[in-house]
Design a protein that fits this description.
Family: Belongs to the nuclear hormone receptor family. NR6 subfamily.
Largest sheet: 2 strands, antiparallel
Structural class: mainly alpha
GO molecular function, one term: hormone binding
Radius of gyration: 23 Å
CATH class of the largest domain: Mainly Alpha
Shape: globular
InterPro entries: NHR-like_dom_sf, Nucl_hrmn_rcpt_lig-bd, Nuclear_hormone_rcpt_NR3, Nuclear_hrmn_rcpt, Znf_hrmn_rcpt, Znf_NHR/GATA
Low-confidence stretches: 1-12, 89-98, 122-199, 441-449
Number of domains: 2
CATH topology of the largest domain: Retinoid X Receptor
Subunit structure: Homodimer.
Strand content: under 5%
Subcellular location: Nucleus
Number of helices: 18
Distance between the termini: 62 Å
Strand order of the largest sheet: 1-2
Length: about 450
């Protein structure tokens, strides 16, 4: 192994054993790319516990590797990445360059993937602000089974360990003092199990959280969409007409996202190049999130009425792809989840910022600053949600677990042929509107304005 290392040529076009991307060298014992090296280090250092939304056998490629963190970490371990080669101080560089790949048993892998090994170690966990961009924010997590579990969070991906969630951590990102009875908060995702030991207590909102949330809401264009979606009775909408309408809607929604970026309170903290990179990678996710929340009444009302006037041909029905079926099922599930949660404008604004500030996107220049911003709004969102809904201890993780599902759906929609989009939207909107009619007993779904601020 040592002789192989000495003769290794970085310019040699080897491929990463995890995702197939161009490898940059021997990292933690195996040939891998910078992306998988950093992911493995973040996962182990931050004691991440992920969940897979499928069958724990997701495709690992350069384009798909960010879709499921569980399967990515699983493959890292299966291919021999050595967690003991990671420096304990979290700084760049391996602990021992001579450490090679390791073979561990299925039982050991399961202990790592389930978090059992981290619990037994029980080290004092901190997220030091040492400038190492390899540290990860709490924005990555995983969904489990066909519906994401509360142990899930951001990046297709999904569950986040919050062992180091202490007063010092919150102070670091919100810069406010914390009262003593909040210095030992329980592990975020085991809170439900411990709720009998720590009943919800009324508390105040941290001073900087409220203005930061209001700044995000102020950046949003909450006005109704202006794209005409009214069709006279008796008119039969064609596939071409419906597709053209969907394109006009996408244009308007994308234009609003661009305007939103310019109004963000942290707009001056990142470069135009990074904003361009972020938008090009997340615009579909941002549009989907807005359609499920602030524009839901128009999408599941006016647009659904238009799609109802479109009758697909037999050829269209028979040619509907498996990818289209999967996207349809996931969208319907997600709609019902959002309807159940009734996301407030404040929560929506935080979700959108967290999803947008994704430091795992390739090509970013200021990853460290992006990570700080992501963490900042993560904790602001948690603070606001726990303050507004003290008797819903699982609300924050349930909100966060919707984001990886949105990313997953957005990624899969790319595989749906364009000519099938009219049928996809008709099927989804018809199903969602029907279910909405059947169990509507209260106010309008999805978005409610949080009151009492």
């Amino acid at each position: 192994l040592l002789s192989w290392q000495a003769s290794y040529d970085p310019a040699d076009q080897r491929t990463c054993l995890i995702c197939g991307d161009r490898a940059t060298g021997l990292h933690y014992g195996i040939i891998s790319c910078e992306g998988c090296k950093g992911f493995f280090k973040r996962s182990i250092c931050n004691k991440r516990v992920y969940r897979c939304s499928r069958d724990k056998n997701c495709e690992m490629s350069r384009k798909q590797r960010n879709r499921c963190q569980y399967c990515r970490l699983l493959k890292c371990l299966q291919m021999g990445m050595n967690r003991k080669a990671i420096r304990e101080d979290g700084m760049p560089g391996g602990r021992n360059k001579s450490i090679g790949p390791v073979q561990i048993t299925e039982e050991e892998i399961e202990r790592i993937m389930s978090g059992q090994e981290f619990k037994e170690e029980a080290p004092e966990h901190t997220w030091g602000n040492n400038g190492d961009s390899d540290h990860s924010s709490p924005s990555n997590g995983a969904s489990e089974g066909n519906q994401p579990s509360p142990a899930s969070t951001l990046s297709s991906n999904r569950s986040v360990e919050m062992n180091g969630y202490t007063a010092a951590l919150r102070d670091q990102y919100i810069n406010t003092s914390m009262s003593t009875h909040y210095q030992l908060l329980p592990h975020l995702f085991s809170y439900a199990a411990q709720s009998g030991l720590l009943a919800p207590q009324p508390r105040g909102l941290y001073p900087q959280s409220h203005p930061m949330v209001l700044q995000l809401v102020a950046a949003e264009d909450l006005a109704p969409l202006t794209t005409p979606m009214l069709i006279e009775d008796g008119y039969k909408v064609t596939q071409v007409e419906l597709f053209a309408l969907l394109c006009r809607l996408a244009d308007e929604l994308l234009f609003r996202q661009i305007a939103w970026i310019k109004k963000l309170p942290f707009f001056c903290e990142l470069s135009i190049e990074d904003y361009t990179c972020l938008l090009s990678s997340t615009w579909q996710e941002l549009i989907l999130l807005s359609c499920l929340t602030i524009y839901s009444s128009q999408i599941f009302g006016d647009l659904a009425d238009v799609t109802a006037k479109y009758t697909p041909s037999d050829d269209e029905l028979q040619g509907f792809s498996e990818d289209g079926m999967e996207v349809m099922e996931r969208l319907i599930y997600l709609f019902r989840k959002f309807h159940q949660l009734k996301i407030s404008n404040e929560e929506y604004a935080c979700m959108k910022a967290i999803n947008f500030l994704n430091q795992d996107i390739r090509g970013l220049s200021n990853v460290s600053q992006l990570e700080q911003l992501n963490k900042r709004y993560w904790f602001v969102c948690q603070d606001f949600t726990e303050y507004k809904y003290p008797h819903q201890p699982k609300r924050f993780p349930e909100i966060m677990m919707c984001l990886p599902e949105i990313r997953c759906i957005a990624g899969k929609m790319v595989n749906v042929p364009l000519e099938q989009l009219p049928l996809l939207f008709k099927a989804v909107l018809h199903s969602c509107k029907s279910s909405l009619t059947s169990y509507r007993t209260g106010p309008s779904p999805c978005v409610t304005a949080a009151s009492g601020n």
